[in-house]
Amino acid sequence: MSDHTAGNDKSGQNVLGRFVTDYGMVFVLLLLGVLFSMLTFTEQHPTGADAGVAVASVVANQLGAGASVLIVTRDTAGDSAFNEAAAEHLEDHGVAVVARVQGSPADARAAIEEALASGNSIDAVIANNVTAKWTVYARYPEVGSEKIVKPDPYYWPTFLKSTNLLGVANQTAIYAIIAIGMTMVIITAGIDLSVGSLVALASVISAMLIRDLASGADTGAPAMVLCCMAALLVCALAGAFTGVMVTAFKIPPFIVTLAVMMMASGLAFRLSEGRSIPELPRSFFWLGSESTLGIPNPVILMLGLYLLAHIVMTRMSFGRYVYAIGGNREAARLSGVPVVGVLLAVYTICGALAGLGGIMLASQLAAGDPKFGLMYELEVIAAVVVGGTSLMGGEGKIFGTLIGAFIIAVIKNGMNLTDVDPFNQKIVLGAVLLGAVLIDTLKRRS
Amino acid sequence: MPVAVPAEVPLLKMRGIDKSFPGVHALRSVDLSLKRGEVLALLGENGAGKSTLIKILSGAYRPDSGKIEIEGAEVEIGSPSDAIAAGIGIIYQEFNLVPALSAWENIFLGRERTTAGFVHRSEQRKLAARLFEKIGVEVPVDVPCGRLSVAQQQIVEIAKTLSQDARLIVMDEPSAALTPQEVDRLLAIIRDLTARGIGIVYISHRLDEIFEIADRVIFLRDGEHVGEASIEKLTLQSMIETMVGRTIDQEFPEHQHQVGEPRLVVKGLCRADVVRDVSFGVRRGEVLGITGLVGAGRTETMRLIFGADPLDVGTIELDGVPLQIRNPRDAIRAGICLLTEDRKSQGLVLGLSVLENFGLPNIREFSRAGMMDRRQERAEFGKYVDSLKIKIPHHEQLAKNLSGGNQQKVVLAKWLQCNTEVVMFDEPTRGIDVGTKYEIYLLINQLARQGKAIVMISSELPEVLGMSDRILVMHEGRVVSEIEDVASVTQQQIMHLAVG
Q: Above 50 in pLDDT, residue A4?
């Protein structure tokens, strides 16, 4: 019988096939990674503590104990780590550090003159790739440019440097977290345009509450968490309000969330009187700007939430209901699916995650601002669509959205690294969005 | 035949039509010919290749090999517009009408007569009215098609093909959604069309209609042409056997139900003017047949009991316990399920796998604290795949890729797993092939033997008579008659009651 044998491939072969169908965008992401790695392959100069130790051990081995060495770096965080580590290593090996310069060529000259004036010799100058190019050393015959030792350069793609990759992940985290809720909403065949405004609203509310109620230096984390929870709650309620309008009054979600978008934005401007709110304690920045075990906190939060959402959507009855409602709302209702409850929950989750995004953004940018989150809804919807979720509902994968968000982020990052003009970047991103949907459509047709 | 034509040149000739899809050889060198003024019935079980053959005629598919000739001239049908140009009109089971547009707007859609972009409204309205006159049926020309009855919409489709000068009209299950009188009228229209030399390819699962209208029958099985005969040489029995490829002793299985005490009792059900004061009871082990014309309120009554629509007034009791049913979820929990007539739009989520569809009403059973136990779900579904002989390559097969019969089996499986005490079937065998029909009948009888209360809505009178222990006839939202002694009534008597 023709109809039943239509898919008579073995289910074993099917696993790979389904992975390709569901997560084919992984390959696009990998391809982009390879492309930008090739385009940004260039000479790299080691920095930081490791590089400092490496250079110091070269100097210590060559000159042996008793030599005296000058260390010259600029006054930046990475340079001072380099400087400090090198000094420590030298002293451990009995090499005298004549002076440690952290600043400009003028500072270096002062240090050299002082050292020479007090009768010290300078057997070597430890510098990095920037300070090694300074011409100040050649002015003193006692020093000379041939005594400069700097870290050996190596070749590696700028794109693939861990600082760059973590930066990309960090910049994507907020979009990606909001996109979780958006994916669920779009799978139910809905849309939520209000997320961008909710980001602004959450940033303003959390910042105001912290400023007014928990701004003292001695304020503990619990008070701050409470302020953030309040902002989150407001956004969740906004989502629930959308859900009620969509289910009880059957207003199309596009219209409801367009209205909520305007109202939330207006409210954010009203509360903040249109101004940025930067009066925030340093401890508030932990969430958005600090790292745990070398990974930025937003990235950790993002990964945790994606794992959770993936389990909810694939292993829990709630997820099954979401797909069923999006696939055929009436059939789902007639199968006993609590359609209204599930839709309410989905919009509430979407609102709450937008709120979380707003709090993270406030923490990252050290302020609450009603102008935050502008166009986020479009960016987030783009990530969901590039990730393979159908706007018709019923289809889509949570991790697909993560991949979609990263594809967009990697393209942006790659274009920045290769100096593509920002106007052209917009054109490229638009084309990418269209291309992703095109691939998806063609895949479905075959 | 009332037509004088040179019989040697067939209107349509298809030769050696072959078509494969990945994994399926849908048509194997199929030949078909149709004379002017002839009604050719295309018979075969679901999945036999009838739809594929039609889609080749309509330009939706291209054959891998084979030739198509219209009145002796070979034609290439690469697109629907090629088909229209060749004089082929297709009326699908699901109509292609824009619901918001009126009859005349639909008929001339895409071919409007205009001057500088302005549509000649009155001229086209007149043309449309003349077409309806020609067909001999009155259809309001200005009412949006979405508000016309199914039969009227079908007439609009026929008028549309006629306005395109179709010489040959293919009708795919045209009677599926029609009441018996509407079918009679359709058959009269078809006779009229053939009298004017138009050839008809007629596809239907209702074999009685085939005897009434067809001149010749072609049988397809597994994509092959397995037989051809003029209608006089066929009997119901031989038809079924050629289609199925095996002998079938009887159309309906024997049943001797042990009917017990009343289980489901409904009193005074009302909803607006579609269901008016409906009261009845269904007893343990009983199959209650409900029949009537389309629009008699049968489906609407079942939807009230199932909580799919809100009830104005009325009470529903199961085993003497009054039930508060606000939605289908309540009904399922109380032990009532409904197998809807329209599987594609109401019974299944087509984009989900068959396994997920099966699990949908049973999620509470297959989950602990919200987490699905997919192994249990898979194991339970596996049992039904075996016992109901559901033909699927694997459990992840999407529901949309199944034939009608297998879709109905998946729907059956999901509700059987719910194990509800009341099972309501709405047209359980519509659009389903003969072999599968019999299996469904056996299953209904088996459920009755288990002591469940069965309600079966059907428009097919032989089915109602062959399966029911008791019959209710509905008309305009009311129960107009209750027939206790099913063996003593005839189809004509029931028809008489149904028309009021």
A: no
Distance CA A309, CA A184 (A): 9
Whether B1 maps to a domain, the answer reads no
Residues recorded for chain B: 500
ipTM, interface predicted TM-score of the complex: 0.74
pLDDT at B1 over 50: no
Structural domain count, chain B: 2
- The rounded distance, in Å, linking the Cα atoms of B456 and A48 is 79
Q: How many CB atoms lie within 10 A of CB A75?
A: 12
Lowest mean pLDDT among A91-100, A141-150, B69-78, B385-394: A141-150
**A99, A138, A435, B441 from A118: Cα distances, Å:** 12, 19, 69, 109
Selected residue with higher pLDDT from B185 and A346: A346
Residue B257 lies in a domain: no
Sign of the torsion formed by the C-alpha atoms of B88, B92, B98 and B103: positive
Min Cα distance A333 → chain B (Å) is 7
Residue A134: predicted pLDDT:
80
Say whether both B228 and B324 belong to one domain: no
Contact assessment for residue A427 and residue A52, using Cβ atoms and an 8 Å cutoff:
no
Which tens digits make up the pLDDT trace of A117-129? 877 777 788 888 7
- Provide the 8-state DSSP code for B308: S
Of B244, B270, B290, the residue at which a domain comes to its end is B244
Tell me the CATH number of domain A6-38+160-445, given options 1.10.150, 1.10.8, 1.10.3470, 3.90.1570.
Answer: 1.10.3470
B264 to chain A, closest Cα gap in Å? 19
Contact A156, A132 (CB under 8 A): no
Place of tokens 């639909």: B106
Give a yes or no: residue B450 inside a domain: yes
What is the pLDDT, as a whole number, of residue A157?
A: 86
Give the structural domain span for B222: 12-244
Same domain, B332 and B220: no
Chain B residues within 8 A of A316 when measuring between CB atoms: 367, 370-372
| Contact residues on chain A for B364, CB-CB shorter than 8 A | 317
Contact assignment for A4 to B45 by CB distance below 8 Å: no
**How high is the pLDDT of residue A11?**
46
Task: Give the CATH superfamily of A48-152.
Answer: Response regulator (3.40.50.2300)
pLDDT band of B435, cuts 50, 70, 90: confident
- Decide if B151 contacts B186 (C-beta within 8 A): yes
CA B161: distance to chain centroid? Answer: 22
Per the DSSP assignment, residues forming a β-bridge with B219 are B43, B227
Beta-bridge mates of residue A70: A99, A125
Indicate the SS3 state at residue B101: coil
CA of B379 to nearest chain A CA: how many angstroms apart? 16
Contact B349 A6 (CB under 8 A): no
Domain boundaries, given as residue ranges, for chain A? 6-38+160-445, 48-152
* Partners of B425 in beta bridges: B339, B456
B25 inside 8 A of chain A by CB: yes
